[in-house]
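re: ur question from earlier - yeah i can do the single chain one, its not a big deal. heres the input i used so u can compare w yours
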Amino acid sequence: MSGRGHSGFGQGHASMSIELHCHTVFSVDARGTPEDLVDVAADRGVTTLSITEHDHLGSCERAQARAAERGIECLPGVELGAPWHERELHLLAIGFDSGNEPMQRLVDDSFSKYERHFDLLEPHLCAMGGPWTKQQMAAGLARRYPTHPAPIVSQWFARDFLVEQGVFPDLASCKVAINQVRQRIIDEHGPQVFESGVSAQRILDTVHGAGGVVLLAHVAHYHRGDQAQQIRLIHDVLDAGLDGFELYHPLNIAEPHFDALVSEANQLDCVISGGSDCHDARTDGPNALDCLQVPEQTIDRLKSALAST
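and the output i got, formated as C-alpha cells:
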C-alpha cells in the first residue's frame, strides 16, 4: 500500500481536526466510555477520529454509532504490541473491517498477554502492603469498567488498587515499584517473558487482509533522543512491510529533531498518522484529546492507502 502522489507534510495549522490515536476504558490503562470520547472530540471540532484501544475492539461499534450521531467520521482502530529484536513495538492498525474474524482472533490473542503478564507479577504485587489476593483486587473491576464486562486484572488495575489501599501515595510511585519488579523478573527470566503473543508478521498479514493499514506508533518512544536510531527503525519497519508511521505524537513533537522526522516522512512518501495518545478524554495536559495540529493531508494519504487494499 502506498500514499504516493500527495503533497508534503509540515507543521502548519490544519483546516480539519484529525485524532487517530486515543483510548477509552476498553484499553486496560485508560478511562472513559467510547461515547464520551466521541462527544468530547466532536465538541472540540474533530472531523476524523480513530479510537485505537490496546488489544481490544470493544469500542469500535459503539464509537462509530455515536460518531454517526455527532456527524464525524470514525475509522476502526487498535494498538497492538509485537516483539521486535528484543523489545516490543506498538503498531497502530487503522481502517480495517472490525467484523473480520481473523482480525478478531488476532486481537483476542494479543489481549491474552495481560493475564499471562499479571500472573508473573501477582506474587510480588499481592505482597505489597498486604497480603492481598487476586480476588480482592478483582472485586473493584466492575467499578472501574461499568459499561462492559470487566476484563481480567492487569498491572494497571493493580496499581489503582494499591494506591486506593494506601500502599503507595500516588500512581507514579506505584508505577516505579511495579517497574522494578518487572525488571527483576526480566533479569531472571529474560525479556521474552513480557512479550506479546502475536508477531509483527501476523499483525501485518491479518490487518492487510481485513483492509487496513499498519503503522509504527510514537517513534520517539523508541531510542529517545536518538535521531539516527529512530530513522533507522522507521526504515526497518517499512522494509518489513509496515505502511508507515505515526509522525504527529506528543513524544515525537517534543524531540529537538522533529523537523528531521517530518523531512523523512516527506522523502519516504509513506502513510502517516497523528494523534494525542489520550487515555482520558476529560483531562488536559500534553496528551489532551485533539491537542495536536495534524495536517489535513495526513488523512488524505491514509485514505488513499486504504482505497488501494
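The longest helix spans residues 171-189. not sure if urs matches, ping me
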